[in-house]
Amino acid sequence: MPLRTTKPKLAVWKFSSCDGCQLSLLDCEDELLAVAGAIEIANFPEASRAVVRGPYNVSLVEGSITTPEEAERIHKIRRNSRIVVAIGACATSGGLQALRNFQDVDELSRLVYAHPEYIESLNNSTPIGDHIFVDHELRGCPVDKAHLVEVLSAFLNGRKPNLPNHAVCVECKRAGVVCVMAAHGTPCLGPVTQAGCDALCPRYNRGCFGCFGPRENPNTAHLATWYLDQCGQTPEEVIRLFRGINANADPFRRESLRHES
Amino acid sequence: MKAKIAEKKTTMSRTIRADYLARVEGEGAMYIRLKGDEVREVKLKIFEPPRFFEGFLRGRSYLEAPDMTARICGICPVAYQMSSVHAMEQIAGVTVDGPIRDLRRLLYCGEWIESHALHIFMLHLPDFLGYESAIHMAPDFKAEVEMALTLKKYGNELMALVGGREIHPINVRVGGFYKAPARDEVRGFRDKLIWGMEASRKAVALVAGLEFPDFEQDYEFVAMRHPDEYPLTEGRLVSSRGLDIDLSEFENEFEEQQVEHSNALHCVHRERGNYFVGPLARYALNYDRLSPAARELAVKGGLDPVVRNPFKSIIVRAVEMFWAYEEALRIVDSYEPPEKPFVETPPRRGTGFGCSEAPRGICWHRYSIDDDGLIIDAKIVPPTSQNQRTIESDLREYVKGRTSLSDDKLQWQCEQAVRNYDPCISCATHFLKLTVDRG
């Protein structure tokens, strides 16, 4: 194996978001100095004024595309990066701000701003993968910091990240957490949501609200029927449940639309 | 020849700009245009895209407000959660007390510790020491950076202990918590808090020894005030110019204005214009509510009971971090789990107000809900939108006496002047960008 003469370059980019996912990187207090020793943090404005020009080995992209400027900027990042990893619910599905996709943006803008004409915003909030090829999507609202370290380590070593893709439901069973839906009739998105949080909400006696987005092939229709028949939910409540943190993720979006009268 | 240069200097225009402000939370830029020694224009531009939270909260259940508003900000989600749950509880006519209230304070102390440690050491200190970042600082200040990371980590652990996780905690609900942590888990945190108090003392000694520019402004400080506590989630709104109002009167006194160069609304006092929220305001208006040990530490750090130099906010933050560790210890040592982790809050039509002291200043919320508990209207005024105009005014005053500095130096010092406020731009747009134009 050839010796690396320079450290691989990492860039962190922000689009429409709350900053929480990139903060997760700074929250790796035990690993941060080791990570900074193994790689060159070439662009990370939240942490540093220093900017090193690309190309970059790995770009972490946080946030969703909500303005014309963002829709342009993401292509420059793709051209300048060997690997692009979309991090968090905003970057992988459009995030909570994708609730605008179900409403009239001009009206929303009028509600919040006295001069909506100063505001430049797209009608929809969309994930990074709708605009460019993304090498890996890291789910979560926020992402799990151990997953973040795993993804960086994997890509920098040329291997595939080892991350779970089963449902939150499986995490509950493994941990011996009592099912909140079966035991208490609390609606829970656990059966259709991708694992990664270690069944956090059910451990706290509440239903999952889908931070990690839909798992592969989720049976949302059957689950919705369960909410209506067994948990006594109204169709409006079912809509709100699917239309949350990952409202624009395809299976969740379709399920919420199905219950609109 | 010399005279010519001098003449040229007085008429020459130049621009100082930072197109993407670093070490702040969110996306902003700074633009300053000078003509000779005269400051022509100062703009703190917020280009962080709007996310319309207040708009899409309409039609959602009042119970969803803490989970949804948390997503406004990854750095201070607890501030949003606390302001929103207090507003909803006011509507329900419920007061949360005892161990549940203590747990909320413990969670909020965690957020203050995490946010203050992050800002003091990783966002602000590198400016004073001339480094691009804390990571660049690490080889020369290894022990300090490691101490900072541990201070921050314990703040995060405290949030995870009470809230389930550090970013966007899941355990907060209207009326209290979904689950109360066990007695032993909480009491077991004691040693870390004692270490944190000692490390915070060292932090105060470290930052008190920095060099500060000679810069004081006559601000109107606005903060919360509680009858007997340093303010976190409850109290009235008071100011250094005599304001003393109930939370519900906020909109009578303050208004949000929209300016073209910012996606964040500027919040100003209706008659007196810009004002100042955050650590300096809290400290000046609540000095007597600090614990004796925190006051003693402030004196050791060279602070007067009122600090008007915004660069010294780094010392005040360190004192507040100490206070938060001390308060957390008080709560942990007396903790007994509540019988039930929450108080019932059935839906009821009405309007409620909530306000809490986010690490960077007051975060004010108003909600109206209908009989079914659906949100009819929401208004959220985050700290940074309130400080925006004061940041611009600071930049204008700061640049005035310092136009002989090179562009690079002036830019860096102006960036530092912005970072004094620990601006949280994602919050404010619901809401930052620096440019100095000498043209």
UniProtKB/TrEMBL annotation, chain A:
<dbReference type="Pfam" id="PF01058">
    <property type="entry name" value="Oxidored_q6"/>
</dbReference>
<dbReference type="GO" id="GO:0051536">
    <property type="term" value="F:iron-sulfur cluster binding"/>
</dbReference>
<feature type="domain" description="NADH:ubiquinone oxidoreductase-like 20kDa subunit">
    <location>
        <begin position="18"/>
        <end position="154"/>
    </location>
</feature>
<keyword id="KW-0560">Oxidoreductase</keyword>
<dbReference type="GO" id="GO:0016491">
    <property type="term" value="F:oxidoreductase activity"/>
</dbReference>
<dbReference type="InterPro" id="IPR051349">
    <property type="entry name" value="Hydrogenase_assoc-protein"/>
</dbReference>
<dbReference type="InterPro" id="IPR037024">
    <property type="entry name" value="NiFe_Hase_small_N_sf"/>
</dbReference>
<protein>
    <submittedName>
        <fullName>Oxidoreductase</fullName>
    </submittedName>
</protein>
<dbReference type="InterPro" id="IPR006137">
    <property type="entry name" value="NADH_UbQ_OxRdtase-like_20kDa"/>
</dbReference>
Automatic annotation (TrEMBL), chain B:
<feature type="binding site">
    <location>
        <position position="427"/>
    </location>
    <ligand>
        <name>Fe cation</name>
    </ligand>
</feature>
<feature type="binding site">
    <location>
        <position position="73"/>
    </location>
    <ligand>
        <name>Ni(2+)</name>
    </ligand>
</feature>
<feature type="binding site">
    <location>
        <position position="430"/>
    </location>
    <ligand>
        <name>Mg(2+)</name>
    </ligand>
</feature>
<feature type="binding site">
    <location>
        <position position="76"/>
    </location>
    <ligand>
        <name>Ni(2+)</name>
    </ligand>
</feature>
<feature type="binding site">
    <location>
        <position position="76"/>
    </location>
    <ligand>
        <name>Fe cation</name>
    </ligand>
</feature>
<dbReference type="InterPro" id="IPR018194">
    <property type="entry name" value="Ni-dep_hyd_lsu_Ni_BS"/>
</dbReference>
<keyword id="KW-0533">Nickel</keyword>
<dbReference type="InterPro" id="IPR029014">
    <property type="entry name" value="NiFe-Hase_large"/>
</dbReference>
<dbReference type="Pfam" id="PF00374">
    <property type="entry name" value="NiFeSe_Hases"/>
</dbReference>
<keyword id="KW-0560">Oxidoreductase</keyword>
<keyword id="KW-0460">Magnesium</keyword>
<keyword id="KW-0479">Metal-binding</keyword>
<dbReference type="GO" id="GO:0016151">
    <property type="term" value="F:nickel cation binding"/>
</dbReference>
<dbReference type="InterPro" id="IPR001501">
    <property type="entry name" value="Ni-dep_hyd_lsu"/>
</dbReference>
<feature type="binding site">
    <location>
        <position position="380"/>
    </location>
    <ligand>
        <name>Mg(2+)</name>
    </ligand>
</feature>
<feature type="binding site">
    <location>
        <position position="424"/>
    </location>
    <ligand>
        <name>Ni(2+)</name>
    </ligand>
</feature>
<keyword id="KW-0408">Iron</keyword>
<protein>
    <submittedName>
        <fullName>Ni/Fe hydrogenase subunit alpha</fullName>
    </submittedName>
</protein>
<dbReference type="GO" id="GO:0008901">
    <property type="term" value="F:ferredoxin hydrogenase activity"/>
</dbReference>
<feature type="binding site">
    <location>
        <position position="54"/>
    </location>
    <ligand>
        <name>Mg(2+)</name>
    </ligand>
</feature>
